[in-house]
Write a structure and sequence with these properties.
alpha/beta, OB fold (Dihydrolipoamide Acetyltransferase, E2P)
Length: about 850
């Protein structure tokens, strides 16, 4: 996402945004544990699920759970320290969270196109005022036709006092306009229910039945519990399993009626639903035989109350919202009017009307995204940049001096970058290459094209160890006898660099005696001044916030930019998120690399996996053992790194040298462990997913992943990419949490393919876009309430319409586009943000 210079808008995962709001409120309340009714720990019941949906790291989730559980027993000053310390830990993992302190006011949320922010009015009457005339202008609008009352606080609604308003604010509803865009997360279609006897394995559906029995039994030797519920509707029975949710046993009572939604699975020949959504049957809704919205809730409100409140607001206000989309676009794309879409997105009369409503609202989101990236691309292309031209002979000599032969994909990438650098326009490229495809070589050759003309290049990596790895590679490729630079002209600048050496490097950059600098965020700190920075490379771009990229680029004058990622991004996602960047794809592995042989083992076959690990180490190789958690959790049934590390060291591999790596360690501790592993001082590295970014240990040939069913395909593929980086055959063993997860689709896909792009497409279909999204991108995804980034047809339709309109009126300056310009400005913010 982007940030404007004036509004300081920063986007992050919704669960982190929610956490920050509560922390801010707690600060304003004097740390008296009243930000949530019942205390801050109460939010964990629903926050943990949201955090997992956002794919937050397990280390962060566990840190939040432990800190908030003990929060009530602390004194006010200790509470303040606890929340500040917790937020700092979060910011260490998610840089975007660190751009404002937890106690600071939260950023203005990204608004929907039709509901602009406005100053909060004073408390008004308890009933919604009559609709204002269309002449009422929103503050700062050109010709706004949006009723100003949509900016009123929710306390104008009957039955909503300050307490309820604060609760609803926790769901993101602060104004009447917000309510229009707080969509149901699912629907119960009481006209199309299936009897239990007719359901099939693999179906995603809703059934209604009566609870026959509720039983709780221990699992994993008493360390966890499972609540087993039998639901019957007279035609058949369905078992519901709730893992590590013991409180469900008190909530559910035999004889009660529930609607249950989830995926039908199979266990020992019986149909089951694991951790399904439940809703007490609303007899009133059931009798209407219609589609009923189900909204996400929070403590203090129930479904029936919120549904009635939404009905009151939506039916009155949805028809009054101005439709900013030009009639020509609506007709061409076959879309229903906005007011009708909003009404049917909440309270649809039929499945057809619901589908049309969602299609219209999803189109709007993708359309505004596409208009924004098209404008960004135009602005970037209009920037002049210095030309860097190299002769065919020069390039041929440089490639011949490399210690290996380039793949055809690398040659193609180098050729396109060479053309960009000689064009006179600022290059803005995304280099997307699967793990081990040789992106560093391409970046090094591009840097050589810059420095041979006397200018400077900077390469920014997310971690010190990755920066050091790049530094060694750049020295090997560009310095030495056949190189174009002396060793001292390529330098490494990281947090651990001694201060005297940092000073020397800063002086060399300011004097242009240092041509290439490789480092971490230390590169963008104020004392670093370049004399002539003309090329910036951002590695693993999703690890950096937009501000950090902009800060590096600001060190030069219109420098050429290359951002790199090892995460294969499906085409539909790349079209949407990176429309402003020229995409370069490297989908070929260097010669000599063998595909990693992958196997799924059942949990009881673990000893077989250990035998394979011992065999590889006996041959002088090394192994990774990866865990989804740092420490065992009461709520999550999965093995954990710290707990198993002791057992592995003392009982399983007593004669081998084991290292431990996890997210709670300090950065220098992580680097130290990783360096020792790289230098063969450890035989086995026991780790959480912090190891996934491109660290190169060619001697490691074995990757054992515990709890493999808890990872997405993209993450599994990234982890697997830590081995197979040498010429020896490498292996990846996947052990799921449960026996019945052995047939997990993701795990089978890993066995079938080593193609990151193919796996990325499959992961996008199975799990949504979260796996691919970083700072900028998760801002996008959290703003997409209706659109699915898996819907390529929608994306291409919206892109075609945006392209057509952009060609006719790029600045939206024509009178008929005034409403659209206003809505577009609200969607993207008012500044010239950097979307790359």
């Amino acid at each position: 996402m982007h940030k404007t210079h004036h509004d300081k808008i920063i986007f992050m995962q919704p669960s982190l945004e929610k956490l920050r709001k509560y922390f801010r409120l707690e600060r304003e309340n004097g740390y008296n544990n009243t930000a949530i009714i019942g205390g801050l720990s109460k939010m964990l019941d629903y926050w943990e699920g949201e955090a997992r949906t956002d794919t937050l790291s397990e280390e962060v989730i566990q840190a939040v759970i432990q800190r908030l559980r003990s929060y009530d027993g602390l004194a006010p000053q200790s509470r303040a320290d606890a929340l500040k310390g917790l937020w700092k830990r979060i910011a260490d993992t998610y840089p975007e969270a660190g751009q404002k302190a937890a106690g600071a006011p939260p950023p203005r949320p990204r608004t929907t196109p039709e509901a602009a922010p406005a100053p909060q009015p004073q408390r008004q009457e308890q009933e919604v005022p009559p609709p204002p005339g269309r002449a009422d202008l929103a503050p700062g609008a050109k010709t706004s036709a949006t009723p100003a009352a949509l900016h009123a606080p929710l306390t104008v609604l009957q039955g909503v006092g300050p307490v309820h308003a604060r609760t609803l604010a926790g769901l993101g509803m602060n104004t009447l306009g917000d309510m229009l865009y707080y969509f149901p997360h699912r629907y119960e279609d009481y006209a199309q229910l299936k009897p239990i006897k007719s359901i099939w394995y693999g179906e995603q559906l809703t059934v209604i039945g009566t609870i026959e029995s509720v039983h709780t039994r221990p699992i994993r030797g008493g360390k966890a519990q499972i609540v087993e519920v039998v639901l019957s509707d007279g035609t058949g029975a369905l078992r519901l399993n709730f893992f590590n949710q013991a409180w469900m046993a008190n909530r559910l009572k035999a004889g009660e009626q529930y609607s249950v939604s989830g995926k039908v699975q199979q266990y020992l020949g019986r149909l089951v639903m694991n951790n399904p959504d439940l809703e007490p049957v609303d007899v009133e809704s059931l009798n209407t035989n219609r589609i009923v919205p189900i909204y996400s809730l929070t403590e203090g409100i129930n479904q029936k109350w919120l549904r009635r409140l939404m009905l009151h607001a939506i039916k009155y206000w949805a028809p009054l919202v101005a439709d900013a989309l030009p009639e020509s676009v609506r007709q061409s794309a076959g879309l229903v009017p906005l007011g009708e879409a909003l009404l049917n997105a909440h309270f649809p009369d039929s499945q057809e009307k619901l589908k049309a409503a969602r299609a219209r609202l999803a189109f709007d989101e993708i359309f505004y995204l596409q208009m924004g990236v098209l404008r960004q691309k135009r602005d970037w292309k209009s920037m002049e940049a210095r030309r860097f031209e190299v002769s065919d002979e020069w390039l041929k000599d440089r490639i011949a001096a490399l210690p290996f032969q380039l793949t055809s994909a690398q040659e193609r990438a180098v050729s396109e970058i060479r053309t960009d650098l000689g064009s006179g326009q600022a290059m803005n490229r995304l280099l997307q290459g699967d793990v081990g495809s040789g992106k560093t070589v391409v970046a090094a050759l591009a840097s050589a094209m810059i420095v041979q003309s006397g200018a400077q290049a900077a390469i920014m990596s997310p971690t010190s160890i990755l920066a050091e790895q790049h530094y060694r590679n750049f020295l090997r490729l560009l310095a030495g006898e056949d190189g174009i630079l002396q060793e001292g002209q390529i330098r490494l600048l990281i947090g651990d660099t001694p201060e005297a050496e940092k000073e020397e490097i800063r002086a060399g950059l300011a004097a242009n005696s240092i041509k290439i600098v490789i480092g971490t965020h230390a590169l963008i700190e104020d004392p670093v001044v370049f004399q002539d920075l003309q090329f910036a490379v951002i590695d693993e771009q999703h690890r950096f916030g937009v501000d950090q990229r902009a800060a590096l680029r600001s060190k030069g004058t219109s420098p050429h930019l290359l951002v790199m990622t090892a995460t294969p991004i499906p085409r539909s996602l790349a079209l949407t998120l990176y429309g402003d960047l020229d995409l370069l794809v490297m989908d070929e592995m260097p010669t000599g690399r063998q595909p990693v042989e992958t196997h799924v083992l059942r949990p009881q076959e673990r000893e077989r996996a250990y035998t394979m690990v011992r065999g590889q180490i006996a041959e002088g190789k090394q192994a990774f053992i990866i865990y989804p958690l740092i420490e065992e959790s009461e709520k999550i049934e999965a093995r954990a790194a710290v707990d198993d590390y002791e057992t592995l060291s003392k009982e399983v591999f007593p004669k081998l040298r084991l290292g431990l790596l996890h997210g709670r360690m300090k950065p220098d501790e992580k680097d130290d462990v990783m360096l020792k592993f790289r230098d063969r001082k450890y035989d086995i590295l026991v780790s959480t997913t912090v190891v996934e970014v491109g660290v190169d240990v060619p001697n490691a040939t074995m990757m054992l992943i515990e709890g493999a069913d808890r990872f997405g395909l993209a993450q599994l593929h990234q982890l697997r990419g830590r081995v197979g980086r040498g010429s020896d055959q490498s292996y990846c063993l996947l052990i799921p949490t449960h026996e019945d997860a052995t047939e997990n689709e993701r795990l089978q896909a890993m066995v079938e393919s080593n193609d990151g792009f193919l796996l990325a497409e499959r992961d996008l279909q199975q799990r949504g876009p979260g796996e691919f999204l970083g700072t900028r991108q998760s801002g996008y995804a959290s703003g997409l309430r209706m659109a699915s980034l898996t819907d390529l047809a929608l994306i291409e339709k919206a892109r075609a319409q945006a392209q057509s309109l952009f060609e006719r009126d790029a600045n939206l300056s024509q009178p008929e586009h005034s409403l659209l310009a206003e809505a577009f400005g609200r969607f993207w913010g008012t500044g010239a943000g950097d979307v790359s």
